[in-house]
Amino acid sequence: MECVHKDDNEIKGGISIWESIMILLLIIGLQVIGGIFIAMLMGILNNASGIEIINNAYASAIGNMIAYIIIYKSLLKKNKFDIKLKCRFDIKITICCLFILIGYTLTYDNTISLIVQNLVSESSIDAVFTEMLQTPFAAFCSMVFIAPIFEELFMRGIILEQLSRRYKPIISITVSALLFAILHLNVIQGINAFLLGIILGLVYLKTRNLIITILLHGLNNLFCYIVSYFPELYKVDFSPIKLAVGVVLLVISLYIFKRFEISRETDKTGEEAL
């Protein structure tokens, strides 16, 4: 499959940093409003029926989906963004990106993660996760599918893509990663999201392949999901061996990834294929 863009002249100069912030605020605002609305609606239905038709975890997932869809539709109506990408699947690049993710995870979990957990305590976030994990299916759908697909659609597919049309890569990647961190609305997740956002940003700008970033995001969340239910599978205590393996794997994978040549062709319609 090929990754097809419309003529870049249809999108004049991308968006500014301020416009990207407004998109983020719109996402957060509608998520909150959607969550409250769905929760109230489900509360009314539950009270009327006398049984719990749907709990807060499912209501939250539905609210987030509705918010993302509304924003997506509103942005498309303005004809400002083109994110309908059909991406060529390159197995070598994908495997390399998976090793980057593994290397990053091992490195982060044995350095910054331990420091953050010792310095920052967020009981409210712990309570949210505890409640969410009481509904495994809702947690799985939200963490492994809804969040990766929609967050990548907006954070990389729209915000990073458009920022990269106006700013240098280092600025566009840093800003999009920072907004990605803010989207999580807590320090512990935010720091990890910022660093992961840097990696996902590098991958996206190199490949212009949203499918790969969705896959990486989904696998990262799947790993967190599995560890949440089976903590014995992955200990969070400091391990010099894991750290050494992570650093080596991350450095080598990034070096190999940097050397990949991404082919760019022009199809019969005159559109650019990446």
TrEMBL record:
Enzyme class, UniProt record, top EC level: hydrolase
E.C. number: 3.4.-.-
Domain CAAX prenyl protease 2/Lysostaphin resistance protein A-like: 136-223
Residues that span the membrane, as ranges: 21-45, 57-75, 95-116, 136-155, 167-183, 189-205, 210-228, 240-257
UniProt-listed Pfam families: Rce1-like
One function term, GO molecular function aspect: hydrolase activity
InterPro entries (UniProt xref): CAAX_protease, Rce1/LyrA-like_dom
Keywords: Hydrolase, Membrane, Transmembrane, Transmembrane helix
Claim: Electron transport is one of the keywords in the record: no
Name of the protein: CPBP family intramembrane glutamic endopeptidase
Species whose genome carries this gene: Candidatus Clostridium helianthi
